[in-house]
Design a protein that fits this description.
The chain contains seven helices and no strands. It is mainly alpha-helical. It starts with a helix and ends with a helix.
Length: 161
């Protein structure tokens, strides 16, 4: 029962975040992203249960994601990548290393724990993003405080055994 309540609180917190969004298309895109984010841990968990090692699974994920990312860059793909690399190689390397490390940790944690706990931990990143936003000058509003409180409570309940 705590996991159902936790999921409901997470959804409520996310809805509070997007309440009053400027466009229906934006809300629809956010909802599609939320559905994908909610479902992919289940797919990865299934792959891990079938005996796939997390490291080759991560490598295959990168191989499949690369063409999609290149398409999303649209025009002048290679020139844009090259320009970003020339301008900020250390920042790109650090960002890529942090992203890769966090995803590998996600897969290893998913292999050892249930999707509920791992998803709860991942959703707590919204809390940290909001806190960093406040730290860097974003306004503290009733909406953002309420959203963070709901998401944090949901994450705690989802991780409850």
């Amino acid at each position: 029962m705590p996991s159902v309540a936790g999921a409901a609180l997470l959804v409520a917190g996310l809805l509070v975040q997007i309440q009053g969004a400027a466009s229906f298309r934006g809300v629809a895109a956010a909802a599609a992203c939320a559905a994908a984010v909610a479902l992919y841990p289940l797919g990865y968990k299934r792959a891990l249960q079938e005996g796939i090692d997390p490291y080759p699974l991560f490598a295959m994920s990168l191989c499949l994601a690369l063409p999609v990312q290149l398409v999303l860059l649209r025009t002048n793909r290679l020139a844009r990548v090259g320009s970003a690399w020339r301008e900020q190689p250390r920042r790109l390397t650090l960002g890529a290393a942090l992203c890769a490390g966090s995803f590998i940790l996600f897969l290893v944690a998913l292999q050892r724990n249930g999707p509920g706990r791992v998803t709860a931990l991942r959703n707590s990143s919204i809390l940290f993003a909001t806190l960093f936003g406040w730290w860097s000058g974003d306004p503290r509003t009733v909406r953002s405080i309420s959203s963070v409180a709901l998401i944090a409570a949901g994450a705690v309940l989802l991780s409850w055994k």
